[in-house]
Amino acid sequence: MDQYRNFIAGEWVEGVATRPNVNPSDTTDILGHYAQADAGQAEQAIAAARAAFKTWRRSTPQQRFDVLDAVGNEILARKDEIGRQLAREEGKTLPEGIGETVRAAMIFKFFAGEALRVGGELVPSVRPGVGVEVFRQPLGVVGLIAPWNFPIAIPAWKIAPALAFGNCVVFKPAELVPASAWTLAEILSRSGLPAGVFNLVMGAGSQVGHALVQSREVDALSFTGSVATGRRIVADVAARGGKVQAEMGGKNPLVVLDDADLDVAVNAAVQSGFFSTGQRCTASSRIIVTAGIHERFVDACIDRLRKLNVGHALDAGTDIGPVVDAQQLAQNLRYVDIARREGGVVFGGEAVERRTPGFYQLPALITGTTPAMTINREEVFGPVASVIRVQDADEALAVANDTEFGLAAGICTTSLKQATRFKQEAEAGMVMVNLPTAGVDYHVPFGGRKGSSYGPREQGRYAAEFYTTVKTAYTAA
């Protein structure tokens, strides 16, 4: 069986143990055994990054452009191969896996350009004979902790800006999806980066993650993952004076008003709630529908769900792949059962068998729910969406905002007035009109409000707010 090592200080290094990477579409298919580091190896990677920063911080914009552009080009050239690997280890359908791979490539190419576009200001002082410069500088060593649901795109949008702005990286991928991370690391290892600038340390959060969070040699930490873990990380990093950024989840609403185009609304709800097996932090898990369209909308959604094919991620014709692992499947089924016991009417949602042993679940639509039900308060992170019936647009907006989260929100309406009001008043970092809430561009900010996010936005030129620090310099004439 193939074994894959960590990458520390420019060398491929054995871990203290290995972990099998299991295909959720076929649990008999093992992608390989991936190294597991301990806290000591994480500290070695941090030390390597600190040493490399002395010279990498002085790298030219052209050097950084060349590295990132080359990485983007190779990912694009290998999109079918890498996309297939991604689908095989995470459970996305093959088209979704290839699409995510292309997105990762474009992120690297975008930040290659950003390396050349870092600017500053030269302004006059209020004092005569004094000049003022304002410019950005890299932070130093950045720890990056990524989740399992986007195994290459989320690492890309953390690694690329960190390198583009002159930082050194210690990257910990999710334990469930090391293959995509390892492939990305292997490409980076041949990109021209000096030893220690980029380090891959695969392993448990209790070992590798804890070391990154606690080390005072890690100047900043970017995390995407669960709410509970994110809140602990924010508190711990802030307590030691580090810079921290956290994306932690959502309970995203999709409002459907009486005047909505029914086909547009159904497509937005199904795409948002169920594709990628619902395993997206931007998924619409609360569908808030006004009374005049409610019955037609529910009937049309159920009709659409009946036609979706749940199956092996690599099979042609599969619309929805498996859930990522047994633990996630059990959690999904538990929430469906809770919703049923609290009075919801459930369509679908059962675990099913397919031609290969895997973690398959039919998409679940739960109707007859109220805002106070558990299914409408807690993030499920699976192919499970609930419908809340409301009387009008005012109640729909109030219910949409009635959550501790604030990542994404959507509305389906043909009214410019209602769309404009929703864009202004929805308490979310990202708002979609007549579109799925899941699906965002790589060149604009990503992030939310309230319990969904902490710290500056990710992606686009706004990424500079996290990955750099601003310096003001005064010079006497």
Automatic annotation (TrEMBL):
Classification via Pfam families: Aldedh
The protein's name in its UniProt record: Aldehyde dehydrogenase family protein
Q: Which terms are listed as keywords in the entry? A: Oxidoreductase
The family database entries (PROSITE patterns) matched by this protein are listed as: ALDEHYDE_DEHYDR_CYS, ALDEHYDE_DEHYDR_GLU
Species, as recorded? Rubrivivax gelatinosus (Rhodocyclus gelatinosus)
Q: Which residues form the active site?
A: 247
Family of this protein? Belongs to the aldehyde dehydrogenase family.
Record domain Aldehyde dehydrogenase: where: 12-472
